[in-house]
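## tool: complex_structure
## caller: assistant
## args:
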Amino acid sequence: MFNYATRRVLSALPIAIIAVTVCFFILRLAPGGPFDGERALPPLVLQNLRAHYNLDQPIWIQYFNYVWRMIQGDFGPSMVMEGFEVSELLAIGLPFTLMLGMTAFIVATIIGVIAGIIAAVNQNKWPDYVLVLAVMLGVIVPNFLMGALLQLLFGVYLRWLPAGGWSGGNWLQLVLPVTVLAWPHAARISRLMRGSMIETLGSNFIRTAMSKGIGERLMLTRHALKPALIPVVSYLGPGLSYLLTGSLVVESIFGLPGIGKYFIQAALNRDYGLVLGTTVFYVMLILVLNLLVDLVYAWLDPRVRFR
Amino acid sequence: MANVLEVKDLNVTFSLHDGDVSAVRDLSFVLGQGETLAVVGESGSGKSQAFLAIMGLLARNGRATGKAVLGGTDLLALSPTELDRHRGLDIAMIFQDPMTSLNPSLKIGRQLAEVLVRHRGQSDSAAWRHATEMLDRVGIPEAARRADSYPHELSGGMRQRVMIAMALLCEPKVLIADEPTTALDVTVQAQMLELFKTLTDDFGAALVLITHDLGVVAGLADRMMVMYAGRAVESGSVDDLFYAPNHPYTFGLLHSTPHVEDSGQRLRPILGLPPSLEHLPTGCAFHPRCAFVMPECRTARPELTHRGGGRHAACFYEGELKEKEAAE
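## result:
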């Protein structure tokens, strides 16, 4: 298990390097720059600004400087929000974004797994059909529309829940954003779980387990759950990255104080430092989370550890 | 000899999209204490489904009617929960494919121990210890280390030994082995048969050996039952059936088995294919392939009748079966 973990950590490093490189150069290829406003700046001012942020150096020197500073944990300054370091802005927005994302992720995973098991055990009966309907809604309605619809229904007409905002500690304000974020994730997981559970229940070793008379409950929890979770777990990594990127949009719909607010502004303003910092930070986050997922995977399926 | 299992009028039906299909029809037989019964037939003859039905392990679209009385209890009349009190305790089953019949994500010891925890009420640690002893008894070297392994770390033969150990943990009265040697290579097969012989003798369990390998039958079984298209077509002692089969299908099976001294000769197959269960021939299901077919075989179905000496056969032809006639 330890060897496996070491191997996985080492193989994550090249991915991180490639991701940083691609992000850096793609951003520079996009037209426009941080100092292009509606009114052009005087050439001297522009030149000084570019010199201040080292944008006048050859691009490969900028690249190596950036990577070198990043290894030391310094994401550089924001180029549009005067006087802010990227890491400061991340530190302000991150706790909320992570809290929102992880809450939605955990809620969605638990609901998705349980719903998938219920659907599999009641295959082609009414609970299965109810699930199909819920899944379809979750997958086909985009989050910005779902968010607005739920705000309208529960926030404006029924007045059961606040329609948006965050006053720090009122958990009711999180119900709608978490629902919008979690729904598609739970939907995909429940479909995966249903399929893989049905497949597992048809396998020979489940027949063996039943032949021993251990009963349906133990058969499900001890024998079927772990093997059936394997495809679900391998989806959790990519699933989490969908969810975290979706959270950027949901934060701005519900007016929540997360990274999303800065990120969308930064992208519109071509704030190289902030966009790059945020993107690289997300890449790292997703790499770490994928790594955790892989370790869970190895725990679920002992054969993986030996490959 | 007391009977441990009595099966009467067992019918197994599967509902498919385009109607019901009978996999087992009117199957009746008894199993004596400590006896070894071989159930022989081609794929699709219903031999496996009959015993899966008795164990309550049919696929979701299958259902069984009839009786299967084990120690005074009709297993087919029980709810799944009631049946769970008998499965693994009084009656146990070993499956064909040891590579897929063990749970890949659970340690071997756990998969064995849970049987004892369930049926004997043992603590986890006591059950694990007994499981290790049983692994040792079926000839697994370093049993304690193996108990702590996952199935993929064991060879096919070792896994089948694990399956046998698992089935014997509670010393069941009836052990059903569904093609226990099919997935193994020949040398391991021989070891496995030897093991079956020793263990069923030691434990006094009656053994049902589902197989299409007549070599296995000859080496191990006391009695045999031949199935064709869901029905028993002949039953009796292994010696009787091997030396003087009464049913042309049994005769064909025996004569299609190659022998060492036959080298250089052509194989003698039973011509034709097993019938589709959805479209069985009229009359005797075997008549299109039968070398001894008579006009009445095409219209009427012969019942299983007593032929003396505890033998039964379902055939209108009562004369001696000779290869010369079969070859014509």
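## assistant note: Chain B has two domains: 3-90+170-327, 101-169. DSSP finds eleven helices and twelve strands in chain B. Handing back to user.
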